[in-house]
Design goal:
- This protein is mainly alpha-helical and about 200 residues long.
- The protein has a single domain, classed as Arp2/3 complex 21 kDa subunit ARPC3 (Orthogonal Bundle), CATH 1.10.1760.
- Helix content is about 70%, strand content about 5%.
- It is globular.
Length: about 200
């Protein structure tokens, strides 16, 4: 049964990583958000749901196996679809944030049902966003390869009072959406949670 679940969850992880790597190329063309968001911000948080469900029902070791497969696939896709610097950023952010998610989830697994998934996903999303955008666009990591001058351009925001790099704004927008989606994903998590008790 675990083997079947592992195949199913791993397949889901790979598909979400694939879809997110495609959608990251398409900005959200509504309400002037094209400079802030891509559609991947809405799909990528599902990877944390998959990790959390695997962690709860199959254990942390199986969850790590699913993450490692997703990591391998994420790196391969990034190499094919993006620059080496983006590939490094994507792989590093994915692996670190998912492992952190697994660790935090286990810390809160015996608490009220919603605490483990929301706390682990929130910290995982924060780490993922910080690592990805810093490594991919910050001038501090320019030694890794191509530096995007458009991304590092300084812009004024928040009523034209604060100057921030464009990639910094992308990161803020990305994190806000990820946290919102993480809250919404409590609904399917709760459904799985209840159905598992009914089947026992």
């Amino acid at each position: 049964m675990v083997d079947r679940n592992l195949i199913y969850l791993t397949t889901c992880m790979v598909l979400i990583v694939l879809v997110s790597n495609i959608l990251v190329q398409y900005p959200v063309q509504f309400f002037g958000l094209e400079d802030l968001l891509t559609w991947a911000a809405f799909t990528y948080p599902i990877t944390f749901l998959i990790t959390d469900l695997t962690n709860r029902y199959c254990g942390p070791q199986i969850a790590k196996r699913v993450v490692y497969v997703g990591f391998t696939f994420a790196v391969l896709l990034s190499i094919l679809l993006a620059t080496p610097r983006i590939a490094i950023a994507s792989g590093t952010a994915f692996l670190a944030s998912q492992i952190l998610d697994i660790y935090i989830f286990r810390r809160y697994i015996k608490e009220t049902w919603w605490k483990a998934p929301i706390i682990s996903s929130a910290f995982g999303s924060l780490l993922d966003t910080t690592l990805f955008f810093s490594i991919a666009f910050s001038v501090n990591f320019s030694f890794l390869g191509y530096s995007d001058s458009f991304a590092t351009e300084q812009i004024y925001t928040f009523l034209n009072q604060i100057e921030i790099s464009r990639w910094g704004m992308w990161a803020i927008g990305d994190l806000i959406v990820k946290l919102f989606v993480a809250i919404m994903l409590l609904i399917p998590f709760r459904i799985f949670y209840i159905s598992s008790y009914k089947s026992n």
